[in-house]
């Protein structure tokens, strides 16, 4: 889902600082810069309810292009940032807040999941909703979870189907849910 929020996105103060758009040579400064880019990308995607980010498209948006400063991140540098986001903190990265989609494709690293909530975190949100609404033991379709009236007020309403299924699979591994049915018509029972 990529529908935009009605309110304008609140850019952080660093977005209006020209060096933010230039790779910094000092290691500590560079780490700080990458952390700020990661935070900005996650906030942007959350605000716009975007789960997949096409870098080819995004480099032309205000996310990577500050028109007032006439500064931008090019595609190569945007890939460097998302690469950093995709690594664990132990690997010197951004805590696995991104994941490349179809990395081996002809386009290479062009589209990534942006985990403003990782599937494990979405699974926790789903469990909280299930417990809070008495849905344990009931069967719901994945479509109902994503598009149903009962979830309209939930943050996961309108979620990308692939993200929902990954989150539900976390619950399956935890023994808190069972998924059944054919692709595109999945149902889920919560325990």
UniProtKB/TrEMBL annotation:
Keyword Thylakoid: no
GO biological process terms on file: macroautophagy; protein transport to vacuole involved in ubiquitin-dependent protein catabolic process via the multivesicular body sorting pathway
The keyword Cytoplasm is annotated on this UniProt entry: yes
Compartments reported by the entry: Cytoplasm
Residues spanning the signal sequence: none
Main location: cytoplasm
Keywords assigned: Cytoplasm, Protein transport, Transport
GO molecular-function terms, A-Z: protein homodimerization activity; structural molecule activity
Pfam families registered for this protein in UniProt: ESCRT-II (PF05871)
One Gene Ontology cellular component annotation held by this UniProt entry: ESCRT II complex
InterPro entries linked: ESCRT-II_cplx_Vps25-sub, ESCRT-II_cplx_Vps25-sub_N, WH-like_DNA-bd_sf, WH_DNA-bd_sf
Recorded family membership: Belongs to the VPS25 family.
Protein name: Vacuolar protein-sorting-associated protein 25
Natural source organism: Penicillium brevicompactum
